[in-house]
Amino acid sequence: MTKQVGVNMRRARKALAATALAALGLMGVVAGPAAASADVLLPHPGPEGLVWVEERVGDGGVVSGGAWEELPTVLTVACEGDGSVRVTMESQQTEVAAFSVDCPAGAAGVGSVTMEPGVVRPGSFSVAVDASAESIRWALTVTQPE
């Protein structure tokens, strides 16, 4: 029964994170190798997803809440457009991830980092994307696989 309560709490926190994301709005984020120009860069992450930015161009980022410290956290970015993006993630005002993704023209580049449980602390987190050109299109997901 205690395990079910924990699962229900995680689901409630994920729903709260999605609500907070919608309330706060999106700023942008970066990406790496993936699909062709007309394709979706990253598919919806499903029930493990905390954040899904379907597509943006240029610099951007996202702020969300609802991270669970007992689960690993995966940040994935895909981009396209003959350049690159620099991605950073902060949890409770501490940088927890930073990487770059090459964004080829006519195809997608993808970059990803997996953080061990506890690296992303409970509560809010932010992801920033710095694109080498305003024409770079990108997508991102933040997931916490159970």
Question: Helix count?
Answer: 1
Q: SSE string, helix = H, strand = E?
A: HEEEEEEEEE
Radius of gyration: 15 Å
- Beta percentage is over 45%
The spatial strand order of the largest sheet comes to: 3-8-5-6
Biggest pleated sheet = 4 strands, antiparallel
The dominant shape is globular
Describe the protein's topology.
Blueprint: H1 2-24, E1 32-33, E2 49-57, E3 60-67, E4 73-80, E5 83-91, E6 94-103, E7 109-115, E8 123-131, E9 137-143
Antiparallel strand pairs: 1-7, 2-9, 3-8, 4-9, 5-6, 5-8
In short:
The chain is of the alpha+beta class. It has one helix at 2-24; strands at 32-33, 49-57, 60-67, 73-80, 83-91, 94-103, 109-115, 123-131, 137-143.
Description of the structure:
The chain is α+β, with helices and mostly antiparallel strands and 146 residues long. The chain has 1 helix and 9 strands. The strands form 3 sheets. A 4-stranded antiparallel sheet has the order 3-8-5-6. A hairpin with a 2-residue loop joins strand 5 and strand 6. The N terminus is likely disordered.
